[in-house]
Design brief:
The chain is α+β, with helices and mostly antiparallel strands and 87 residues long. Helices cover 36% and strands 17% of the residues.
Length: 87
């Protein structure tokens, strides 16, 4: 799996205070209802994994962003688990 859940990053970005949370409580509620996971895999490696040329990755990422399935944040992607409705 190339996307994963990072509780510290998720808490920071979603402005959720994690101090004092019991781990089982966190994974019982926030984890189950989380909006996104993190993908830190370089784009060239993702291209190899899915069998496309790295020349085409720009178009692919643009389409994923257009349909709000991913969002680029710094050097990683937020991968939405459920498509976001346009705001």
């Amino acid at each position: 799996m190339r996307a994963f859940f990072d509780p510290d990053m998720y808490g920071y970005i979603e402005d959720i205070e994690l101090d004092g949370w019991d781990v089982s409580e966190f994974y019982g509620t926030e984890f189950r209802n989380r909006k996104w996971d993190v993908c830190t895999t370089p784009l060239t490696e993702l291209c190899k994994l899915v069998g496309i040329s790295s020349v085409n990755i720009g178009t692919t990422v643009t389409e994923l962003e257009k349909y709000r399935l991913v969002e680029r944040v710094a050097h990683y992607f937020k991968v939405y688990l459920r498509p976001r409705i346009k705001e």
